[in-house]
Amino acid sequence: MKKIYILLSRSHALAMPKVPSLMRPNDYAHLSQLRCRFEGKLNELLARKELPLAA
């Protein structure tokens, strides 16, 4: 999770509400600036021909 925090904060994608050591997986789900692009198991996502990541 720390890598996600670093990616988002260094790219200035959004301001993080906590320092990395205090961020938990559920905290990311509550960031209003982010939207869910996939929900499910990773192997289901990787099995698809087209990945729903680009919008």
3D architecture notes:
This protein has 55 residues and is an all-alpha fold. 36% of the residues lie in helices and 0% in strands. It has helices spanning 2-10, 25-29, 42-47.
Secondary structure topology:
Blueprint: H1 2-10, H2 25-29, H3 42-47
Number of strands: 0
Overall mean pLDDT: 82
The value of Rg in angstroms is 13 Å
Name the beta content range.
under 5%
Low-confidence stretches: none
Query: Number of DSSP helices?
Result: 3
Describe the largest sheet: none
Shape: elongated
**SS class:** mainly alpha
Task: Give the ordered list of helices and strands.
Answer: HHH
The percent range for helix content is 25-40%
What labels would you give this structure?
55 residues; mainly alpha; 3 helices; elongated
What is this structure, in a nutshell?
With 55 residues, the protein is mostly helical. The chain has helices at 2-10, 25-29, 42-47. The longest helix has 9 residues, at 2-10.
